[in-house]
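Batch job 17 of 40 flagged for manual review because the log was empty.
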Amino acid sequence: MTVPLTQIAAGHTFDPMTFVVDAETSRAYRAATGDTLPVYDTEAAVPPLAVAALALGALLEAVGLPDGTLHANESMRVHEAVPVGSALVCDARLAQRSSRGGWVVTALESEITLEGRTVLTTRATVMCPAEAS
């Protein structure tokens, strides 16, 4: 049974998540977002936002999300390019939690690594209705 995100305490560290960004997933992300930057035409590298989105998606699938949950903000720092087909590891923690105006506001920080090297660091803010807590 998954624990709702609204019931996980600040400071909680999630189990590491491993995921692969294959060429098909990278192409699908680019098509869905309209990303036509020529740097990705050779499919040698994955758009950094695709990596961040896949990591956040994997994390949010591991917890329960109440109806009405919003992804409010995302920031990231790109440390190096991610080649297509890379097996990545995401280490995440619930960095901050607060309640405001009927919402539970949660900040999730992640470090995404490739073969032990940090390739991206992210911070996502997720807002859940407080009455779902």
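Reviewer: the log was empty due to a logging misconfiguration, but the result itself is present. The domain at 8-132 is CATH 3.10.129.10 (Thiol Ester Dehydrase; Chain A). Unflagging and moving on to job 18.
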